[in-house]
Amino acid sequence: xxxxxxxxxxxxxxxxxxxxxxxxxxxxxxxxxxxxxxxxxxxxxxxxxxxxxxxxxxxxxxxxxxxxxxxxxxxxxxxxxxxxxxxxxxxxxxxxxxxxxxxxxxxxxxxxxxxxxxxxxxxxxxxxxxxxxxxxxxxxxxxxxxxxxxxxxxxxxxxxxxxxxxxxxxxxxxxxxxxxxxxxxxxxxxxxxxxxxxxxxxxxxxxxxxxxxxx
Length: 215
Prior knowledge:
By secondary structure, this protein is of the alpha+beta class. The chain has helices at about 5-15, 25-35, 40-50, 60-70, 70-90, 105-110, 115, 125-140, 155-160, 180-185; strands at about 95-100, 170-175, 195-200, 200-205.
């Protein structure tokens, strides 16, 4: 049984539990809305819903399942900002970066670019955070077709490009999903484990608990 079949089976079983008969069209809509998530993730989200004493007896709508998976737009924007804050502090804006969530690229481009972000001081940082989260949430609820930049150009590549120098390797920044964090029972649930991959090596960097001067 492949992942899609497992997902369909889980949805059907939960529908039966909630005494809800889903038509083939409705099932297809669920599958389309949840296509970005694995069967295991959907299973965890559905189980979290049915264990909720306030509404768990009703079949969740696709949006309810997605909210269980992501935590809603506010949580998503906060997690996205956590990645950005970590990258600026731990990697810096001299390097070119590629966030796993490409929406981050578009938001940062709208705000002036990756290099410009690194020029902000500590006093400006809370305002930068608020602007980022508002823009990010705006894109999340937008129904317009969205094609985002593939990476963010750092200062070294920007200057090198002007002088005809080949681009350096882009650093990939990844983050576990909210449900993955819960399953791993991390010590600080509001701070996801972040990592970047460079030539096959894996490096971790813990977010600072206190103030830290920006690069």
